[in-house]
Amino acid sequence: MYWPRRSHRGYTTRSDHRRSGPEPGCSALLRPVGVCTTLAKPLSPDRYSHFVSVTRPAMELAHAAICVSELDRAMDFYGELGFEETHRFTLGGVENVYVGKPDSDGDLQLRYDSDRTTPIAPSRADTDHVAFTVDDVEATFETALDAGGAAVLEPTEIEPAGAYAAFVEDPEGYTLEFYRGL
Q1: Residue 54 pLDDT more than 90?
Q2: Exposed, middle or buried by CB within 10 Å (0-12, 13-18, 19+), for 12?
Q3: Which of 40, 57, 65, 126 could make an SS bond with 35 (beta carbons 3.0 to 4.6 A apart)?
Q4: Rounded to the nearest 5 degrees, what angle is found at the Cα of 40, between the Cα atoms of 38 and 41?
Q5: Pairing between strand 175-181 and 130-133?
Q6: First CA to last CA across the chain, in angstroms?
Q7: Residue 149: pLDDT over 50
């Protein structure tokens, strides 16, 4: 069952309590894990749509982080794909820039360390790929190529995965998947 964040239709999750404290009448602080039973309810009403308790926290992907060797080049590439900077900060000398699509959950975090002395995983053995859902696989694939990406797999139907997908290597060598469901 999916439990939305406060930003989605006014519901709340336990993570909101860490930022602002519990709402009046909320018993969430008595529960080691879960959501406030006086405020949360499932998105899909059914015969049990009254307030319920959850035994595990709600979870959504917030961001994926990749290391980049040239921040401007990475920003240009992802900008061509329609990503916009959502926020940035520097911590311990590492510049962290988050890029995302408007009206989308989750960001891609670009981590740039100008003092890094070791290469950034030249074989990318530590990351297989980062996947993005898109409306038009072919157009996104072509845009990525025009922006400096290299084709890995042209748009094709991948029936076992239930997807129509294409794979591109970004300028840093990360493999990106653009897909839509069949």
Answers
A1: no
A2: buried
A3: 40
A4: 115
A5: parallel
A6: 23
A7: yes
pLDDT of 118 = 72
User: Lowest-pLDDT range, 60-69, 94-103, 120-129?
Assistant: 120-129
- Picking from 128, 131, 116, the residue whose alpha carbon sits closest to that of residue 67 is 116
Q: Please tell me whether residue 173 adopts helix, strand or coil conformation.
A: coil
- Per-residue pLDDT band at 145 (split at 50, 70, 90): very high
Which residues, 6+ apart, have CB-to-CB distance to 174 below 8 Å?
66, 124, 127, 129, 130
* pLDDT score recorded for residue 156: 96
Alpha-carbon span 42 to 35, nearest angstrom: 11
**Partners of residue 180 on adjacent β-strands:** 164
Q: Which residues lie across from 153 on neighbouring strands?
A: 167
Q: Is 144 exposed, middle or buried (0-12, 13-18, 19+ CB in 10 A)?
A: buried
Residue 11 contacts residue 3 (beta carbons within 8 Å)? yes
Give long-range contacts, CB 8 A cutoff, 24+ apart: 167-171.
167/129, 168/141, 168/144, 170/74, 170/77, 170/78, 170/144, 171/70, 171/73, 171/74, 171/77
Q: Which residues contact 159 (CB under 8 A, 6 or more apart)?
A: 182
> Domains (ranges, CATH) in the chain?
1-60 (no CATH), 63-181 (3.10.180.10)
